[in-house]
Amino acid sequence: MDKNTITGLILMFALIYGYSWYFSPSDEEIAAAKAAQAEEKAKVAEEEAVFEEESNANESEDLSDQDILNLRGEFGSFASVSTGDVSLESLESEKISIEFSNKGAMPLSATLLDNSKKYGSDENVEIWDTEHSKINIQFDIIGVGRINTQDLYFNLIEKSQTRLKYSATASNDGKIEITHILEDYRLNTEIAYLGLNGIVEENQILDWTAAGQRNEKGLQWERQHTSIFYKEAEQGRNYLSEGRSDEEMLESKLEWMAFKQNFFSALVSTPEGFEVGSKLENILIEGDTVNTLHFNAQLLMDAEVNGSSIEYELDFYFGPNKLENLNSTGLEEVGRIIDYGWWIFGWVNRNVILPLYDFLYSKVASAGLIILIITLIIKMLLFPITWKNFLSSAKMKVLRPDLEEINEKHKDDAMARQQATVDLYRKTGVNPMAGCLPALLQMPILYAMFRFFPANIDLRGQSFLWADDLASYDSIIDLPFHIPMYGSHISGFTVLMAASIFIYMKMTTAGQPPQPKQPGMPNMKVIQNIIPFTMLFFFNSFSSGLSLYYFAANIVSIGQMLVIKRYFINEDKLKAQIDDYAKNPKKKSSFQQRLEEMQKEQAKKTKELKGKRKK
Predict the structure, then answer these.
(1) % helix / strand / coil in the chain, to the nearest 5?
(2) From CA 449, how far away is CA 346, in angstroms rounded?
(3) pLDDT (mean) for 63-75
């Protein structure tokens, strides 16, 4: 590039810069331009507002000209409040936030604020799916027909942090007033028809439709523990089939009703009870992966007439399935929404295990450690029973050579073999059933735990080792495919539990005498090997807290067995005690004598029958 070219370029840039500087607007001109733009926007907005107002006026005129008679025919004296604009309000306590709409003046949504989160999310738990739910009051106007509050637009006339009051005024100056008062998880709703006696009928219906929101880890497990629970007057708590479609027309007065999911419920009651003929329904939509179940309740009510007013109240509970919170409603048997088991099992869980868990929960931060502590406490309390069981097993082991000799001697004669075995037990004072009773006494605890851990909401969201939620299944491997009756994951605690069962069963049966094979009878060794394998399928989708408990209980039992065999039971001494007992003949009771005579008679008949067959 030569000198002339460089000079030319410099002159060109200088000319462009000078032109831009000379003709650029001043600060005053820029400000004036902005003001003009703002004025133009304001003018456009004003024109749009005028247009919208004229459009609304035209719509109102159209409604008045074309539809007012239809509205009066459909809504009667409430035609004037059958149109309007929707506005939302909310009530909040420390536990819950409830949103209301002026259209219907009833709850739209209920969101927990007690740190209950949806699984795998920071979103607060919602009690129901707002999009597919409604709470509606149906009432009849004489000469008009049925009216739904969800079709009426109410005015908000009173509001505080825990109280809302709505009103809908009729053409005769009568009105419907709905007052909501929130406390903790409970919402009290008072409904009053003022100046409408003789116009509005007393018989009314609470029409409540809801869709259960998916909040837990496993949809199928959550769905299997979802249903409508209810209690009729002078009857126990009842429920529709869990996890599937079902319905019931009630033949008694209804005290309370709850849309119950695994860990959360929406419940309603009224002081006078709902009337006979109320209808409850579960609806399962096949292929639905968003909602657990759809619910519908048609609850009949008789309002109380006080002078010129008609009144009644509804008590709602929107919250967790926690025994303390449910019992705060004061409703009978409402705590049995939580499935802690029936009869003695439920009693043990509610009155023994739950108070123990709550005490430990206040002292220990880890739910997994609490489960291990409870396991140790239960196993220590059951140790006397365990000792009896092990002692009986040791005695049977000592008698094993004698029993094998009897089996070999009478291998072709079942009656003689049985008689000789009974004589041996009587002579030595060993009761082969002594180990069965201790095992049976432990069954209520085992079954109680089977119900307690999956139903205990305090385990929800609590992690331990690799389990991220002790109230749901744990997964050490997620499979890329689904195995029928098993699932698409492998539960680590379930594998450990099954392995511990296998080892424990091998240890307990190692010293047992072989059982003679009976025609048509199953092979017990095969069954003992199959049981741990079936546990892998049965418990794979169960609460990991339950599998952890059974695994820990088996480990403690194995430890107890090793310690007892090593330090507390001497088989040589036990053999000497049995021999000493056998040397002193015991007088037979009259029952034993009759039993032996019957057995001998039966053996004699068996031999005679075999002899005839040979001939």
Answers:
(1) 45, 25, 30
(2) 10
(3) 60
Mention every residue, 6+ apart, whose C-beta is less than 8 A from residue 229.
237, 238, 239, 257, 258, 260, 265, 336, 337
The token duo for 103 is 């259209």
Helix, coil or strand: residue 352? helix
The DSSP string of 310-333 is: EEEEEEEEEEE--HHHHHTT--TT
Task: Report the C-alpha gap between 336 and 321 in whole angstroms.
Answer: 10
Closest CA to 194 of 77, 275, 301, 107: 77
Instruction: Tell me the C-alpha distance between 550 and 544, whole Å.
Output: 10
What pLDDT, on the 0 to 100 scale, is given for residue 528? 72
Taking residue 298's Cβ as centre, other Cβ atoms within 10 Å add up to: 17
pLDDT in tens, 227-259: 999 999 989 999 999 999 999 999 999 999 999
Q: Tens digit of pLDDT for each residue in 97-140?
A: 999 999 999 999 999 999 999 998 889 999 999 999 999 999 98
| Nearest of 353, 310, 368 to residue 176 by alpha carbon | 310
Position 576 confidence tier, pLDDT thresholds 50, 70, 90:
confident
The H-or-E segment that residue 158 falls in is strand 155-159
CA distances from 520 to 351, 517, 523, 527, 606 (A): 45, 9, 9, 14, 19
State residue 344 phi and psi, 5-degree precision.
-65, -30
The 8 Å CB, 24+ separation contacts for 590-593 are 592/426
Report pLDDT digits (tens) over 271-306: 999 999 999 999 999 888 889 999 999 999 998 888
pTM score, whole prediction: 0.76
- Average pLDDT taken over every residue of the chain: 81
CA distances from 474 to 196, 545, 550 (A): 59, 9, 14
| Residues 115, 120, 126, 128, CA torsion sign | negative
Partners of 163 in beta bridges: 181
Radius of gyration of the chain (CA): 39
Q: Is the pLDDT of residue 405 over 70?
A: yes
- What DSSP assignment string belongs to 367-389? HHHHHHHHHHHHHHHTHHHHHHH
